[in-house]
Amino acid sequence: MKNDILLAKWLSGEISEEELETLKKSGDLAAYEKIATYASKLKAPPFDKDAVLQKIQQGRQHASSGVRQIRPWKRFARVAAVISVVLVSYIFLLGEDTVISTANAEKTDLVLPDESLVILNAGSVLTYNRKKWDERREVLLEGEGFFKVVNGSTFDVKTYAGTVSVLGTEFNVKNREDYFEVNCYKGAVRIIHRKDTLKLLPGGTFRALGGKKAETKNTPDTEPSWLRDESSFKSVPYPLVLKEFERQYNVRVHLRAETNLDFTGSFSNKDIETALKSITLPFRLKYKFTDGKKDEITIYTDKD
């Protein structure tokens, strides 16, 4: 809630130096700066200010008299509302993008305009432009997705960590925090990661994690394990494993133990008790539901 107020102040130009430093430390400012920079380069559509104000007034007249207004928020709410309306208008008018997202503890599948199949893992977002699809088969991915691409022109999966290009194949892309991984199951994929370009064949895996890159070949898997409701890891930092656990079960995990650990193994995405044992027993850790809450878990050592 506090960050929402600071963001509103920043958008309206009323933020103090001290508040700005607080906002920078929270990590939220960087994302909003990117949005503001992008929006500043666009040509705004015609905006009928009087019509919008009239609708706002009409909405107030229909509001229940029993609702108490919190006046210090009024100015910030107006700023946020105007920004939201303008940005949505930009997206609609310029790109007509289709955005598909999954919440925690949720998976979904979708069919793209060319009949290619995508299955999104929990906590993921996929964006594509249906109107321009025939010109360019391209999607933007944040999170993790499995792709079964039909043959045709180049198909690009773009992430902030790199681009995966194919013609027709089956592959998985994971793009989370500082973790970028591509697995090829059929056909071939080309990966552009920073200054490197490489090609993966079936059974090949490329991973960039914590500044280190690695490529492996001839893995026996024919699909990602999460399609079978299981999350698998090989030498992955323990905090990242816990992040995936949080996404799969829509819970919050508090770790009160050594975090400089790498985890190799898997956990079930369907049975939380079994999953907790899978990620704690190898390190002789214990777990408990915090204060009896089913959505909050503490992992700790015997010393605690």
Automatic annotation (TrEMBL):
GO molecular function: sigma factor antagonist activity
Chain segments annotated as transmembrane: 76-95
Keyword entries, A-Z: Membrane, Transmembrane, Transmembrane helix
Domain FecR protein: 99-190
Pfam families the UniProt entry points to: FecR, FecR_C
Protein name per the record: DUF4974 domain-containing protein
Keyword Transcription: no
Domain of life: Bacteria
Domain Protein FecR C-terminal: 232-293
Organism of provenance: Sinomicrobium pectinilyticum
